[in-house]
Write a structure and sequence with these properties.
Number of strands: 2
Strand content: 5-15%
Number of domains: 2
Helix content: 55-70%
Number of helices: 2
Distance between the termini: 24 Å
Strand order of the largest sheet: 1-2
Shape: elongated
């Protein structure tokens, strides 16, 4: 049960970090507006695929988590 408790605490901390990131997301310059992000606007429909932003965040988070694991 101790492992489950530590896992839940870790996920809680991660959710808080993600929540804080989402609150301040618009204040980070260029994030979501990188070359390669797809933005389509037709009439009343808007489609947004932040492909490059997701790749960049994935690489940064992978590096951080690998450093923390050591």
């Amino acid at each position: 049960m101790q492992f489950l408790g530590k896992t839940l605490i870790l996920f809680g901390i991660l959710f808080v970090i993600i929540g804080v990131f989402l609150v301040f997301f618009e204040r980070i310059p260029y994030l979501g507006k990188l070359p390669g992000d797809i933005f389509i606007r037709r009439g009343n429909t808007v489609i947004f695929f932040p492909i490059v932003t997701c790749l960049l965040l994935s690489i940064i988070l992978s590096i951080i988590l690998n450093l923390l694991r050591r």
